[in-house]
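Before the break, one more example. Copy the sequence into your notebook; we will annotate it together after we see the structure.
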Amino acid sequence: MDSAASIPIGAEQARTLPSGANLMTLSGWGRYPAYKAEVYRPEKVAELSDLVRRGGSMIARGAGRAYGDAALSEHGRVVNLERLNRMLAFDEATGIIRCEAGVTLDEIIRVFIRRGWFPPVVPGTRFVTLGGSVAADIHGKGHHRDSSLGAHVSSLDLMLASGEIRRCSREENTDLFMATLGGMGLTGVILSVEMRLRRIESAWIAGETIVARDIDQAIAAFEDIGQRYGNSLAWIDCGGRSRDGLGRSVIIAGNFAGPGDLDRRRGQAPFDVPPKIRAGLPFDLPSIALNSLTVRAFNAAYYRFHSARSGASIRDYQGFFFPLDAIGGWNRMYGLRGFVQYQCVWPLAHSREGLIEVLEAIGRSRRGSFLTVLKKFGAQDGILSFPMPGYTLALDFAVDDGLFAFLDSLDRRVLARGGRVYLAKDARMRPEIFREMYLNFARWREIKGAADPENMFSSSLSRRLKLDAV
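Here is what the structure looks like once it is written out:
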């Protein structure tokens, strides 16, 4: 199932749909869950305003790259903002850009990278909209220095449930601004965003690859390279079942290269990046393809490959920031039932113990995570934003009959050490766990209630977690 698929409907059913609506089955990038909804695709702000004035619950949707149910509304209204995608203004002197919410990071990069500018924060894919990125307050490989995207947003225009449009910033409508960063689209519809791009000297990343034999070496490597590199992450082999070698890792770190870092003999001109051949996965793999044995074999091969190639390196920005974008439809490798990405974070003082507990639990469960990523977080200020100073682990699990009970057990372990789970990746967390993890929820709910007293902006995620309830 694609992340958005049209469902054929008969003439009688078609007549019952409101004007401008299409009945579609939608899912997030994990392809679980999937729900039917009325989908609207306004091309102008005035059309969006008309939809808001009709009343009833709704949720905005961007490119559909949130993993779970944050941009879904079962049997409700979903407003796709991809057509509201104009770049409105850019100041070459300051790097400040203002765009409509439907502009993607990919579009910004393609226009501005050769001019020496790059988004201040990018996640693992460039195919996300700017509005969705703000709603999830995305983080990247540089959070330990740069925080999340919200730290670089100077203002945003928000359409409220009343139809009023408010300019929000740290100086104007401050509470609403902070509640919208990481607020999962529940305070209103983000219409446009103003942020500062980063000045760069090339489209290449100069850095190094470090191999760690266990989680302690990995953490030590992060503490060391954090002083030298602005971007870092680790791939972790989560298949270990004992403390010996638990969390063996390949750490990749780097900074945007300057002209002196480039090897012109190898064709590394500052902004000339070789075109990527984007392969596609044309079919769903059978569920048996990704199991503990195949994942363990892949992890072992990946570790050996990078162990032989550790050291200094120069790589283009696409391979460094967005390696999975080279595989179109890579989410199909998990089969028809889809997958969930489980991402959690622990406070710095509890990160080592939390990582060991979760990795040991995964080993005992014999579950395989094809992609397991470790990063270090720094400061954070959004009311419902996910990061906190500490270490974060992201894992992919194919959906099966026992998965959610296992993830519930991980939730309890993470919560016991003061951690939390990322809402933009979540598809199954329980509301009582959410409220214990997100201690600022009451403050956020108060701001949401003042801006949207009838809970017009409601999603499958918000109803599942009872975010709409007082």
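Residues 158 and 208 are 41 Å apart (CA to CA). Residues 5-15 have pLDDT under 50 and may be disordered. Try to locate both features in your own notes.
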